[in-house]
Amino acid sequence: MLWLGSGVYFHTGCVKVSPESCFLSQFKLNRSQVEPFGHDREPKEILVWHTKTKNIGTQGENHGYITEK
């Protein structure tokens, strides 16, 4: 869950470092405050995102998720 209005966003200060880590670090959470989920479900949930999407020609089931073409 992301907090709307939290002031957390991708910004130019994150460009030269790992953007995902920079973004997540703004939440000021430690591991004890984070709960992983979905590891025991089938089909597996997609719990990652990419800041640059590239179509590499992969095909497969979308498991009901909405995907961009």
UniProtKB/TrEMBL annotation:
SUPFAM superfamilies: Nucleotide-diphospho-sugar transferases
Gene3D superfamilies from the UniProt entry: Spore Coat Polysaccharide Biosynthesis Protein SpsA, Chain A
InterPro entries membership: Nucleotide-diphossugar_trans
Protein name in UniProt: Galactosylgalactosylxylosylprotein 3-beta-glucuronosyltransferase
